[in-house]
Specification:
Strand content of chain B: 25-35%
Order of helices and strands of chain A: HHHHHHHHHH
Largest sheet of chain A: none
Oligomer: heterodimer
Radius of gyration of chain B: 18 Å
Number of strands of chain A: 0
Shape of chain B: globular
Number of helices of chain A: 10
Number of helices of chain B: 8
């Protein structure tokens, strides 16, 4: 449960928003009151429009995020185990890392069209590096002294990897996973804003074209809440499965 | 019986070759307890890592009894516990998946009892004091039922009271189970209190061997213990200290 003070801060932001929109200083067209936005939200929810767009976006985030994990984790493990490969490829990856995923959008649209593949592609691009670097960094930082313990116990290479290296690297991996999750939401909405026919980003840009600021704000709220919920679920999972990592999680505030 | 024949180990450091151990020939009789003493950098940790199989010698060879590998337990200077496992998980770390679970549980319980930690089976490493963590590390070595138990300055980071208690515990365990023990230390008193044989190591070479025929547990304040200490110190300080390590060369530094 969130603390009372946290709730108070959210409430204060809501009150400020209400005051600003009712003060007459800003046009209610540009900044509709919280009340209007919530009414719109209920209307969108009631008509099924919100659920439709949310499900489309959620499906993209989940598949893109899982695909990124499926690519980044083995890549990072492979690089960690074969230093020669790492020295060869890493400069190229460093170059690619500097390119904002959204700058790749035009190219992705040309290559993959404007369907699901392009949306998922942009999510993979944006959360690959946090996850990859988390795993790489975690494995690189493993204490050699703990590996000695495994050697002395007569462990094989794969046993050392599974029972010492991976658990040791877990804090850094978890940080990468958490940052990656946040990035995947940002990239998705960006992609949906530019070229899409469904999804929360599309809902927002469509509302902008119709001058429906209330829907724009409702969409933004939903994205924020979904981000918070997914982060909360990931944290909950980690706290239940690996309680000793709870402290390391705070590093992942991106 | 564990024997080292002309054992040598050198490292490359840039374009320089550093000799950590040169031409060391030793034998450790089955069931004996041998302490190895010398100043920092004399090669004692290298000797232990070679005995543990953590490193390969650059010259010479190790012979282990009839040729079958000895079951070996190692206790390092730091506890080196896995932070994600509780005390029981750490103690049984080397055993799991090799033995039936009930055997693992029984052996872990017995090892924790031997080091007096039966009440802390569920504790996590970050909840343990330095002395308790080191006991867990000893239990982790004991649970392997080692024929050869190697200890690298295991009590160096502990306060004097805990150290004394742990030395007595180690002797008690040795008397019960009779593994072959090689115990490395820079503390001459500790070497005399624990060793049936004390080996003096200096700059990668064995410079002396002192048999100590006193009954256990030994009292550090007796004249006999003091005589042995004095003789060992004299041997270790007789050879001029290495020029590379002037700060560690004074007799005081060795005696502490």
């Amino acid at each position: 449960m969130p603390r009372l003070s946290t709730l108070a801060v959210f409430l204060a932001a809501l009150v400020l928003w209400h005051l600003a929109s009712n003060s007459g200083l800003v046009s209610t067209f540009l900044l509709p009151s919280p009340r209007t936005v919530f009414e719109t939200l209920i209307e969108l929810a009631g008509s099924g429009v919100l659920a439709k767009h949310t499900l489309v976006s959620l499906r993209r985030v989940v598949s893109g995020y899982l695909l990124a994990i499926a690519i980044a984790v083995p890549c990072a493990a492979l690089f960690s185990l074969t230093p020669a490969l790492r020295r060869l490829i890493e400069p190229l990856l460093e170059f690619l890392r500097q390119i904002p995923p959204l700058a790749m959008m035009p190219l992705l649209i040309l290559w993959l069209g404007i369907g699901e593949a392009q949306k998922i592609g942009i999510i993979v691009l944006s959360c690959f590096f946090p996850i990859f670097l988390g795993v790489r960094g975690g494995i690189a930082a493993v204490d050699r002294k703990l590996i000695d313990v495994g050697t002395v116990c007569g462990f094989s290479r794969s046993e050392i990897m599974l029972r010492i290296v991976l658990p040791s690297a877990l804090p850094a991996i978890v940080v990468g996973l958490r940052i990656g999750l946040g990035y995947s939401w940002r990239a998705l909405v960006g992609a949906e804003l530019i070229a899409s026919s469904a999804g929360l980003g599309y809902m927002i840009v469509d509302a902008e074209n119709l001058a429906r600021t209330d829907i724009v704000l409702a969409g933004i709220l939903v994205i924020g809440v979904l981000g918070l919920i997914s982060d909360h679920l990931l944290r909950g999972l980690i706290q239940r499965k690996a309680p000793w990592l709870a402290g390391d999680l705070e590093m992942a505030r991106a | 019986m564990l024997e080292a024949h002309h054992l040598g180990k050198s490292y490359r450091l840039g374009d320089r070759e550093v000799v950590a151990l040169a031409d060391v020939s030793l034998s450790f009789p089955r069931g004996s307890i041998t302490t190895v003493v010398g100043r920092s950098g004399c090669g004692k940790t290298t000797l232990l890592r070679l005995l543990a199989g953590l490193e390969q010698p650059t010259s010479g060879e190790l012979r282990r009894g009839d040729g079958t590998p000895l079951r070996t337990g190692v206790v390092f200077q730091e506890a080196r516990l896995m932070p994600w496992l509780n005390v029981t998980g750490n103690v049984s770390f080397g055993l799991r998946r090799r033995l039936p679970p009930e055997v693992v549980a029984e052996r872990s319980r017995a090892a924790l009892e031997a080091v007096g930690l039966s009440a802390f089976t569920e504790a996590m490493p970050n909840q343990l004091s330095g002395g308790m963590a080191q006991r867990v590390a000893i239990a982790r070595a004991l649970v392997m039922e080692p024929e050869l138990l190697l200890l690298d300055e295991p009590f160096a980071a502990l306060d004097a009271f805990t150290r004394r208690a742990m030395q007595n515990e180690l002797i008690a365990i040795w008397q019960r189970k009779r593994p072959t023990i090689v115990f490395v230390t820079h503390d001459v008193e500790e070497a005399v209190l624990l060793g049936e044989h004390v080996l003096e190591l200096d700059r990668g070479r064995v410079v002396g061997h002192e048999p100590i025929a006193l009954a256990f547990p030994r009292d550090p304040t007796t004249a006999e213990v003091n005589d042995h200490r004095r003789r060992i110190l004299a041997k270790l300080t007789a050879s001029p200290p290495a020029a590379a390590a002037p700060s560690e060369a004074t007799p005081e530094a060795i005696a502490t």
